[in-house]
């Protein structure tokens, strides 16, 4: 099981995604926990490293937990994505391993990982994204 934390940032009916160097799919920003980090510590560290912004802890809200086959991993390897929404301080810009940012809707399932497809469907079902 791969344990990941993701940030769901929604604006104008679209959701922010990122693509890392050498990857063929877009992913919601976030990443793997290091050691005994809390979800908030992981989220804050990963978003700062990937997008150069500071998550505002007082605005962080849990969205949900989703599980699916891990993209690019052996069959049966599952990723558990714990998702949060939050406001931030700063200007969004790709940093470190991130080469590209993009805004997608529920129609863009071909460009994302299996777990992100589940999240897109959930967001669309709740009329949060287009």
From TrEMBL:
Pfam families: NUDIX. It comes from the Bacteria. Residues 1-128 form the Nudix hydrolase domain. This is NUDIX domain-containing protein. It comes from Faecousia intestinalis. SUPFAM superfamilies: Nudix.
